[in-house]
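User: My instructor asked us to take a sequence, write out its structure as tokens, and then describe one feature of it. I'm not sure where to start. Here is the sequence I was given:
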Amino acid sequence: MTKQFLKYVMQSVAGMLGISIYILADTFFISRHSGADGLTVLNLVLPIYGLIYAIGAMIGIGSATRYTLKKAQDEKNIDFYFTHSIMWCIIVSIPFIILGICFPEKVLEIMGADHQIAKLGTGYLRIVLIDTPFFMMNYTFTAFARNDNATTTAMIGSLSGSLFNIIFDYIFMFPMGLGLIGAALATAICPIVTMSVCCTHYFGKHNSVGFQWKIPSLKDLFSCCQLGVSAFVGEIASAVTTIVFNMLILHIAGNIGIAAYGVIANISLVAMSIFNGISQGTQPLISYAYGSGKTKDVKKLLKSGLIVTAVVQAVMIACTWIFTDSLIGVFNSEGSETLLYYARSGMRLYFLGYLFAGINIMLASYFAAIDKTMLAFTASILRGVLAIAVCAVFLSMLWGMNGVWLSFLASEIITFLVVLIMNRPNAQSPVK
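Assistant: Let's start with the prediction itself. The structure tokens for your sequence are:
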């Protein structure tokens, strides 16, 4: 059990890190090409990435979790879940594609861009929105591979896509002179590379995932999305946080404040990817053990996941406090003292939220894995939307920029306490 747990977690974390690293590569190359304005564009687009990833994660991971639970219970007629997930990803992506073709500049203006920033980012956002179905389907391909004991393939797929993106970010942006459009093209092709690698499993002899076609069903979609809600909010959390923070920071510090937050937000994506990787790596094992009635294994897996998460949290906070200026300097190509000033205090205060964030992500994923959708939804929606928005607005009124940074910590503490209180009456829960 321990060896299998470590394998699933490490490979899932590696895959999720691959996704976040290519976003960091975007940030690095864009900062070199377009400076603070480029960082501002990227930070305004990040919430849109977050929404696309969140919907894809909810459909893909939720469908894979439902598939695993039913498979562990020896239920029949479950071969439609993979293709059903793919079809819904395509359907849901249609509005994004229309926005990308017709109104990318307007979308940027709604996100807070002025005329100069909107003009710079229009081509970048157009490509991202048109590529939405591939970003969404990527979660289905990797989640079903992990749940079908092909964690190595899912990891290699994610890392291959990320490596492609990093290499072609540079090639498209600089030697070919495409600028931000080149960065968007590299990012757009990345999920296609990942899915192509995952197909080596789906068309291989060890595949047990069926490809039965079925008319898209809202009932089946809702059933799957209930289990994917923690994954949805885990992804949307950064988008909601970015939108709220952007609005507040624009008022307090202007575009340079947004650029500083862009640095913090992108480094935070790496942290989130690690914790999402731990929770997603543990999920197939917990779901299968729970579906098979192995209560002791469920408790052991949850305990192991929480211990790994706590250790990673401590290391992460220490690194961001010790290497603050070095981390910021990677993305501060213009050497802006103002950007450094805002980002230095921001990073140290913001990352204190990871004292609780990783644990909350793990608990939300656990509740989804054992089909306790209300607890999973409550934990996820609190930390990802409600608590962070309220805390950011309230604390910014008290302490300005420092209040904005500390709102992440405050919202995670609130979420943790609410989860403990809600779960206390359940004597059967391993969390107690």
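For the description part of your assignment, you could build on this observation: Confidence is low (pLDDT under 50) at residues 427-432. Try explaining in your own words what that tells you about the chain.
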